[in-house]
Amino acid sequence: MSINHPSHRVIAAAITAGVPVHIEGSPGEAKTASLTDWATHWGRRVEVITGSSRDKGDFMGMPVETGGRVTYSPPVWVKNLQEAKSGLLVLDEMQSSSESFAISMRIVQERVVGEAELPETTSIVAISNPVDEAVDGMELPAPVANRFLHLAWHMPFEAWSEGLLTDFADPQRPDLARILAAKKDVARNRALIQGQVLAFLTRRPDLRTAVPTDLAKAGKGWPSYRSWHNAIRVIAHLRAGDEDARDLALVGLIGEAAATEFATWISTSDLHDPALVMADPSLVDWHAERPDRLFALVTSVRALAVADGKAKTWEQAMGVMVACAEGGKPDVATPGARALGGQMPKGALMPAEARDAFGEVFARLGSKEYLKV
After folding, report:
1. Exposed, middle or buried: residue 263 (CB in 10 Å: 0-12, 13-18, 19+)?
2. pLDDT tens, position by position, 151-190
């Protein structure tokens, strides 16, 4: 894989966001070795559990009877992850053992191993060979597949030959600081993509949940509330303008058809930058603007203000809601104003115009504090 391949950035973003990743590739392509090397370089404790060579005790721990009750002592690898500042659990050859497959799914779905919980700082990557190349390979059940971001792994011969010389320690391993969004930009990115997703799904309710009837497609990415939420989480960690990685993440989470339609809608909608509008609401022609663009804007503004948590940002966001309402779109602005009113930070002042535009809304919140100017 080239160092500039967008899948590197998607994997890094998903691991950073804590979204489970399912990587599928042919045997012997250094999937596990590469991921172990990357994550170790990123400061994570890596534990690799290989399904085809482990028994039930390796996944659940050993049974211990205490006072007539049987519990399971955590395996050593669980304790290692619990003690680490951040970790990566690699479920290798996940689909090659029916028993380990079932237990692995509980780990992914519940983040529980026997009686022990994995910390939130532990990310999960599952690795599989294509079903037709795997020993006793099986498709992922749709509810399980929907929890993963699915990616294909391709290793060019040149990369493989170089890996032979370094035992697949990658000298050009992905540098998180270089390929992902800076921490200060993640909240803004999340607010923007959140507004885009909500506006799009308002237009296309049939893509909120669409389980494929084809078993092979159901075992990959498809639209659901969970996979759309995971898309927001992953894309927030990508750099602005990294459309190749964004689109790859979308396909891996919501499927190719939904991803293509969503990406096309974004590119043709010419959506507003919420930060710029918060600084100057007059940038928007509120009377003439399309409802879907306004919905995306006010949703992103609200999310950005809540994530920032500062009084000034909140006041700017409320100013946007006022401008939207005064521009003849109170139905679009009111839900955002109501949400902001319930999350007013300490030190913030309610604009006088907001009292006039949303007085009844704030009164229903049950506190006179909202009506102070």
Report:
1. middle
2. 998 776 676 676 677 666 665 678 898 999 999 999 999 9
For 30, counting Cβ atoms within 10 Å of its Cβ (0-12 exposed, 13-18 middle, 19+ buried), the class is buried
- Tell me how crowded residue 155 is: count the other CB atoms within 10 A of its CB: 18
Tokens of 170: 């990658």
Question: Are the CB atoms for 91 and 51 separated by under 8 Å?
Answer: yes
Q: 300, 194 in Cβ contact below 8 A? A: yes
Smallest CA-to-CA distance from 30 within 150, 134, 162, 130 is with 162
H helix or E strand, kind and range, residue 128: strand 122-128
Tokens matching residue 209 = 């949940």
Question: Among 294, 293, 288, 283, which residue's Cα sits nearest to residue 321?
Answer: 294
Handedness of CA 81, 12, 30, 133 (dihedral sign): positive
Using one digit for the tens of pLDDT, what is the confidence trace for 27-56?
Answer: 878 889 889 999 999 999 999 988 665 566
d(CA 225, CA 128) in angstroms, rounded, equals 25
Collapse the DSSP code of 85 into the 3-class scheme (helix H, G, I; strand E, B; otherwise coil) and give the result. coil
Output DSSP code: residue 220. Answer: S
**What are 269-275's contacts with CB under 8 Å, separation 24+?**
269/293, 269/296, 271/192, 271/195, 271/196, 271/199, 271/296, 271/297, 272/296, 272/297, 273/192, 274/188, 274/191, 274/192, 274/195, 274/300, 274/301, 274/304, 274/320, 275/188, 275/304
- What's this model's pTM, rounded to 2 decimal places? 0.84
CB-CB contact of 60 with 103 (8 Å): yes
Per-residue pLDDT reduced to its tens digit, 49-81 = 886 655 666 666 666 777 777 677 788 899 999
